[in-house]
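Support reply, case 0932

Customer input (verbatim):
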Amino acid sequence: MKKTPLYEKHIQLNGKIVDFGGWYLPVEYSGIIPEHEAVRTKAGIFDVSHMGEITVKGEDAEKYLQMVLTNDISVLNNNQIAYTTMCYPHGGVVDDLLVYKYNNEDYLLVVNASNTQKDFEWLNENLYGNTEILNVSENYALIALQGPLAQTILQKVTKKDLKEIEFYNFSDNVNIGNINTLLSRTGYTGEDGFELYFDSNLAEEMWDLLLEVGKDNGLIPAGLGARDTLRFEAS
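Our regenerated output:
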């Protein structure tokens, strides 16, 4: 069993911890319904640090991803994101994932937690040309801030004009408080929101900062249960 860098925060907040694909994660804090409603009407904060991150770099990075992914990655602009799948030769799905494009030679793949090692091995087995891949999952913490007031809350702690970041786009090296962050306008809740990637050693600092600046806007922590009900409702 693995723990995210925010495990102790979940315990302090009386989160109900469950086994989620080999990770200790909170299924709820105050209850699935109030957490669901908070995200729909105000905002919720989720720990999704269990997700995996894999970098793909090199002059053949785009050609390589075109071979292993089902979507046409070449149509992406820099700082744009695509949701796609990675398949076996017979058509079975290895995993579904997000592709973050910095440029034609630099990408970040965000994969499902339980599949991270399997995905990394598959990518290695099919490596092409001048391309280097690294599993950097241990370096990142990942927090999702979701809800109609997400931008209002986040704007309090950054000089970056968040209106500039469109849906399924990202901006790197954004200071949230004093924390250097990759900030994307993504999420699975059906609401506006952001996902924040940053140094895993700063996870508790970021978590506390967001909850503090968001408390007057009704921000509360939300668990796996609300994440699922929100996602189901959105679909």
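We compared this against your earlier run and they match. Two observations from our side: The chain has seven helices and 14 strands. The first strand starts at residue 2 and ends at 3. Please reopen the case if you see a mismatch on your end.
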